[in-house]
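Annotators were shown the component list below and the corresponding predicted structure, then asked to write short factual statements about the assembly.
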Amino acid sequence: MSGGPPKALPSTGPQSLRDMPHPLAGSSSEEAVGGDSTPSPDLLTARSFGDKDLILPNGGTPAGTASPASSSSLLNRLQLDDDMDGETRDLFVTVDDPKKHVCTMETYITYRITTKSTRVEFDLPEYSVRRRYQDFDWLRNKLEESQPTHLIPPLPEKFVVKGVVDRFSEEFVETRRKALDKFLKRITDHPVLSFNEHFNVFLTAKDLNAHKKQGMALLTRVGESVKHVAGGYKLRNRPLEFAAIGEYLDTFALKLGTIDRIAQRIIKEEIEYLVELREYGPVYSTWSALEGELAEPLEGVSACIGNCSTALEELTDDMTEDFLPVLREYILYSDSMKSVLKKRDQVQAEYETKLEAVALKKEERPKVPADVEKCQDRMECFNADLKADMERWQNNKRQDFRQLLMGMADKNIQYYEKCLMAWESIIPLLQEKQEAK
Amino acid sequence: MFLASMTENNFSLKKIEISVSEAEKRTGRNAMNMQETYTAYLIETRSVEHNDGQSVLTDSLWRRYSEFELLRNYLLVYYPHIVVPPLPEKRAEFVWHKLSADNMDPDFVERRRIGLENFLLRVASHPILCRDKIFYLFLTQEGNWKETVNETGFQLKADSRLKALNATFRVKNPDKRFIELKHYSDELQSVISHLLRVRARVADRLYGVYKVHGNYGRVFSEWSAIEKEMGDGLQSAGHHMDVYASSIDDILEDEEHYADQLKEYLFYAEALRAVCRKHELMQYDLEMAAQDLASKKQQCEELATGTVRTFSLKGMTTKLFGQETPEQREARIKMLEEQIKEGEQQLKSKNLEGREFVRNAWADIERFKEQKNHDLKEALISYAVMQISMCKKGIQVWTNAKECFSKM
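Structure shown to annotators:
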């Protein structure tokens, strides 16, 4: 975009939904927007970052001066991006080996973070460091600061009600470890976030606290500029595609909330059922003690019910540890995504306001003032990043839920199989004929 | 269909089939001329021809629950040494929340119909009870049956002491087997009651677990509306969750049948106890009679020899008001000797009665034990089969759901 009066705002404006590409669609219909100031739908896919590079609003120069973390400068990273979807990944991160540390002031858990990478950003091919939850929290905050146009994965909940949940129980620690592992893996899979310098430091630094104290100000150009967007700009219209995303997220979070409540209710009912079973089984034992010929069959039934009780307990434990946390994670995820959407709105609002202000001035201007152009630049970057992340998020979400729900079905199948085996095994015992007296 | 042997006018034995085939709500007037609603049950008796196995309907009449009760009370009095089969419960007990405690509830009526049929089949298959005339008339004589039963005067014969469950008789030499058996019947009653109570709670909880899953159906459907690729998988999985939730109704209905089988033996325990009590009572009477005889003999001896060792009112008054005349004494001795003679006869027959009772009762108890072991084993097997079926259904539904999820 060079010269000429400011073009129509590159928002999608008042258009019928039908003409709008579905936020989940790849490159379906063409976005009916003003010219080439906005990336075409084709560029919503990860592959097209390079092309987008070339359609920067302020000229064709790739933003070589942009900091490495900006998505608009990923020319050479394109290759790696493609490869990440395939087999040649070049960064592997794992969280494991939780250990308890008891100090005078506090007790806490650390996890081992193992990194293997062939990337040039890493001096060594392999790293192994220990981190605690607050380090992860620091990382997430830094990512949010430095990559405000991207969706940052959520962390498992920070606060646990003491006395209700044992922070050091095996189950809790394991649940947390899995969530932290997921968190890092999501960042690893992200073509932009995985190159973030804070992430690198997190994975490699021997003494993270020293780095924290230095207060590394590795803010990207975009990041800094977004930071400077003061609130208070009012957005008139959220572009339909982002409005659709917003609506989707609202409904999504709502439905997940309902599923969470249902799952919790089921677990509660199952636990109450378990309590009754634990009283039920032993009564058969008591009866068995009164009988002669029936003693063995009754004892067999008692043992059988005991086995079913154990299987049920395993089911409820699994659901509590594996199912509920993932649901909650996604609710947190969609919450943080909504706030990113709001930030995007802010950026767009600032641009629109400034543009209008310029238009109102009667003076003839040779070209759009630089700062308005910068605003437009910011907005377009933001829009592109967000759309790309949304699509990635949708794909991952689908995989995650597919796995989660299949896992839930599996656990129930296993429960019933254990019970089936128990009951089938006592049939011969029950049918056994007593030896003729 | 069950086959039993029956006597008709004590002449011949026939093979018959009995069924309680229908239940009907009726209104009528009770003894106090007040309107009441009750249920009547249709009893059909068929005689089976030996050769071709064909059955012919020979009798068909309607009876209400109170008539069954009358029949049973009669049998209890006339066959105290038999473990008389119990009736299904009068009022619904051990209900979990979905079952109705209302006697007029169609499910309760249906289960009662089955229980009454079972009762008749039990009586008809009992080697001794099946020959009873009153039982025969119950199946064949609709009108006047109540009068006929009452004419037997069985209510007068009934020992009211047997009804007082908590009355204890201090028996010195009971047959140990009966004492043990009474203990067993008490414990059996207690354990089966407990079992039935807990089972009802288990059923309640299980119902809750299944039904909550139904909510997944709706929310998956709503969620699928905002999804593109995931939509179909979610929607169809939701349908399976609905199937899962509704499957529990049939499962628990089947389980009620198991509960009814247990209940029968809960009530059988009562019948067992009644036989033990009868023995206790007979033994008590015997011991009282023996004691009385011994005391009379003693008195007689004392009068004859002039020594007073035992306390007697006569002795006291004699001391206070003066000795009796020799004639008076002779008269008393003679009376006592008469009484002693009578008493010895009575004691002899009581002893005989007692021994016969023990013999007969024990024979029936052995028969009962075999029946109980067989029936309860069958009940446990069918319960296990029910559980297996429930597990298989569960596996099926979740496998289907998993398949749907895999297509997401």
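Statements collected:
1. The CA atoms of residues 193 and 381 of chain A lie 15 Å apart.
2. Residues 1-84, 218-222 of chain A have pLDDT under 50 and may be disordered.
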